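Q: Here's a chain of 158 amino acids. Please give me its 3D structure as tokens.
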Amino acid sequence: MSLDGRGIRCALGRGGVTPAADKREGDGASPAGVWPIRRLLYRPDRGGSPRTAIPAAPIAPDDGWCDAPDDPAYNRPVKRPYPASQEAMWRDDGVYDLVVVLGHNDDPPKPGMGSCIFLHLARPDFSPTEGCVALARPDLEALLAEARPGDAVEIRGG
């Protein structure tokens, strides 16, 4: 990934990078394309919101994100417990302490084409994600400080 012309380390999906038209729920791939930055979600008990012009909101312990293709809330935020499959946003491992929601398959969501594509914090070893892009906290905070409404993130195969 590059930021202000300098390369920064990132983790991508365990399934590599795939064309967005080929992206499928659960394939572990990051979808190639240009994805608008929708908003920032953050853990208020772990540093709060960094400086950014992007709309931001705190994550609550009962927040989730639906990843069940046959559910009406597919690729949308939900409150837990939720009757369909969903991903917990309040995590112990810290990777969702800062979560940038990317506009992949969300306008409107097409069942099975991939959900929960975020830009979030990387694990210390930069191990692969489930399809997201992950950065070190200082790099994600630097990106957020420069980001403006209408900006986008490009995911490219390599």
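Q: Can you summarize the key feature?
A: The longest strand covers residues 30-42.
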